[in-house]
Specification:
The structure is a single chain. By secondary structure, the chain is of the alpha/beta class. It is 37% helix and 22% strand. It has nine helices and eleven strands. Strands 7-6-5-10-8-11-9 form a seven-stranded parallel β-sheet, sandwiched between helices. The longest helix is centred in the C-terminal third of the chain and has 17 residues.
């Protein structure tokens, strides 16, 4: 495990200061920027006794290798990785767990966007495999706009085994696949639910598909054959929200 990681972006920085200020070692802020949100972050950091240095833009750019940092970068202790044990505790704590599973999604912008939507939809955890999938990087945190600090991000060794374990705990596993016979709007998505989204292009892996209780697809009326995974995730999550609220 890395000894430190770089965090950047106003939302991500605000979220980590609100939820885990003890992780932040020092903050680097853009010199001369008169911005209310940046000032709030600097003042909050100082209240926690965190060192704040003001730097030229190039210094910040170099620290994050050209990523869009919005004028603030932090050196932080790495967050503890969550695993199967955390998922077990979460399943015990919710009578109707609502889980999002990402199978093989690697693009950090898509993972961040999925986390942000998951937070908005009230998802209790996002589950991903440790291998052949993206982790919780600084880019993911920035795109997630604070959701990475509020939604548990659980990395599991064997996704198929984890799906089976969730089923044994009473969770109904719904996978998305272009070849599915039923659409999102044809099935019941209430009760303890896990929604599985596959990687763009490849979709879910065979073993993952075989461990789903049902397969669904989005109705596609236009010329394009599929949607970006984060967009499709948003559509599916909010149909589940609609059904759960009825």
């Amino acid at each position: 495990m890395a000894q430190q990681e770089w965090l950047y972006g106003l939302h991500a920085m605000q979220a980590v200061l609100e939820n885990e200020p003890e992780r932040v070692i020092e903050i680097f802020a853009l010199k001369g920027r008169d911005d209310a949100r940046l000032t709030q972050i600097v003042n909050q950091a100082r209240r926690f006794g965190i060192s704040v240095q003001f730097c030229q833009r190039k210094v910040l750019d170099d620290k994050v290798q050209g990523e869009q940092h919005q004028g603030v970068v932090a050196r932080a202790k790495p967050q503890r990785a969550m695993d199967e044990n955390d998922l077990d505790r979460l399943l015990e704590n919710h009578s109707e767990p609502f889980i999002l599973v990402l199978d093989g999604v690697t693009d950090p912008h898509n993972i961040g966007a999925c986390l942000r939507t998951a937070d908005a939809a009230g998802v209790h955890a996002v589950v991903v495999p440790k291998d052949k999938a993206g982790g919780l990087t600084a880019t993911v945190r920035k795109v997630a706009c604070g959701a990475a600090e509020s939604v548990p991000f659980i990395q599991v060794t064997n996704l198929a085994r984890t799906l089976k374990h969730m089923q044994d705990k009473g969770v109904w596993v719904t996978g998305t696949a272009g070849e599915a016979q039923q659409t999102l709007y044809d099935v019941s998505l209430t009760g303890p639910t896990a929604l599985v989204m596959g990687a763009e292009g490849k979709g879910m892996r065979r073993l993952t598909r075989e461990h789903c209780d049902q397969l669904i697809k989005l109705p596609m009326a236009g010329a394009v054959s599929s949607l970006n995974v984060s967009v499709a995730t948003g559509v599916c999550l909010y149909e589940i929200v609609r059904q759960r609220q009825q």
